[in-house]
Design a protein that fits this description.
The chain contains twelve helices and 21 strands. By secondary structure, the chain is α/β, with parallel strands linked by helices. The longest helix has 20 residues. It starts with 9 loop residues before the first strand and ends in a 16-residue tail after the last helix.
């Protein structure tokens, strides 16, 4: 039976699974499945825990919108005092739509277009995190055209191994992200000579789902070396952005406590008096959400038993993309049924559409399953592959529930597609 300790907002009551004070069975009846369900209590607690860990310093917690950009969730984070880490103009527009303060926005990402840079400058964001020399000159060009100044920091790769999945390791010297540690000083010197560039900070983000404190400490110590060297050159760093990357529990991981994280970082920052910036995403929203799905069929083969469910890789791609583990549990416990080993598979026409392998479950056709820890990189990475509608999303607080994203209709799926040209095209005559 699954361990619910990392998910205190989940509990079984008379064999039925509840999120806060709402039955998941009731939510499935009201909204259908597949269905993303989020706990406001979990979200707010995670944000406050991060904020309070660094209460002794001037700190800006910039939630990473890429983890989950639902407008309602962003709005709740705005109300909690969050800033935002964005990687596109679309994410910035979401933040502004949700009421976010642009002076609490950092703009990361390796491929910022001129249009995105101009939009962000006009929005008056806090800072651009520059990830290449070419980007530096593009931002200078855009700022000059607008007769504005651009606040910048460089995202520096300290070449520290975060000991996580290669796809989410971002601080090594061969990463597409950031600038090499060895060239950072020269880039700061070049930036310091540009008329429309205002150097504000230095940024470092070494990866995601990190559960070892040592890589964070090693990266910080290398970045502090750069700050001291820049100071000797007359370049003063006013904020230090340490990125995100703190892991959560998916299976049996032991995440770094925020108290230990804060203590380790703050004890090394006595020589730096500037603002601290963090970019957590998964740590805020990951264990705040689950994906509710219904078992359509049980299918037996000589080698495997399959539980075919109505959620699929288009709803949750992480298991197919990263071979990621998500705990899968029964919504209604069946104490009198035998546990069997199932591969939990979706209906998408791909062999890789497996949401969980070799899971011991007591289930049958028509039962509901909950796929846990899907608040981050779940719905936000979903697609319409196989012409499937994206799932609805619901936010729960105590005994109340709110629809925050409607299930897509077929009309939604084809809204962008145009066929009128066929009536006049020679294609129809061939």
């Amino acid at each position: 039976m699954a361990n619910l300790t990392p998910f205190p907002e989940l509990s079984y009551r008379q064999q039925e699974l509840y999120i806060e004070d709402i039955s998941l069975t009731d939510l499935a009846t009201i909204y259908g499945t597949p269905l993303y369900v989020y706990s406001y209590s979990a979200l707010s607690k995670a944000y406050r825990e991060f904020s309070e860990a660094f209460a002794s310093r001037e700190t800006m917690i910039c939630y990473a919108v890429k983890a989950n950009g639902n407008l309602a969730l962003l709005r709740e984070l705005v109300m909690l005092g969050a800033g935002f880490d964005i990687v596109s103009a679309g994410e910035l527009k979401r933040v502004l739509k949700a009421g976010g303060d642009p002076q609490k926005v950092v703009f990361s990402g390796v491929g910022k277009s001129k249009e995105e840079i101009i939009f962000a400058l006009n929005a008056n964001i806090f800072c651009f995190n520059i990830e290449s020399e070419a980007e530096l000159y593009r931002i200078q060009e855009c700022a000059s055209e607008l007769n504005m100044d651009a606040n910048v920091s460089f995202r520096v790769n300290p070449d520290v191994d975060p000991k996580t999945h290669p796809y989410i390791s971002t601080g090594l010297k061969n990463s597409k992200f950031g600038v090499p540690f060895d060239t950072a000083i020269d880039l700061y010197k070049k930036a310091n000579q540009l008329n429309n560039i205002i150097i504000k900070g230095i940024d470092c983000h070494i990866g995601s789902q990190i559960t070892d404190l040592n890589p964070f400490i090693e990266a910080l110590e290398r970045i502090l070396e750069l700050i001291d060297e820049l100071k000797h050159l007359g370049i003063i760093i006013s904020h230090l952005d340490l990125g995100g990357g703190l892991g959560i529990t998916y299976k049996d991981e032991s995440p770094i406590s925020l108290a230990a994280y804060a203590e380790a970082l703050l004890s090394r920052l006595h020589g730096f008096s500037g603002k601290l910036v963090f970019e957590p995403g998964r740590r805020i929203i990951g264990n705040s959400g689950l994906l509710l799905t219904k078992v359509e069929f049980l299918k037996h083969s000589p080698e495997h038993q399959f539980a075919i469910v109505d959620a699929a890789m288009n709803d949750l791609v992480r298991p197919s993309l990263y071979d990621a583990w998500h705990e899968i549990i029964e919504v209604t416990r069946q104490p009198n049924l035998t546990l069997n080993e199932f591969d939990v598979a979706g209906p998408v026409c791909e062999t890789g559409d497996i949401l969980g392998s070799k899971r011991k479950l007591s289930t049958k056709s028509g039962d509901l399953l909950a796929i846990l820890s899907t608040g981050a990189y779940g719905s936000v990475m979903s697609s319409n592959y196989n012409a499937r509608s994206r799932a609805a999303e619901v936010l729960v607080y105590k005994d109340q529930h709110y629809l925050i994203s409607q299930r897509e209709s077929f009309d939604d799926l084809i809204r962008r597609e145009l066929t009128d040209f066929l009536t006049q095209s020679s294609l129809t005559k061939t």
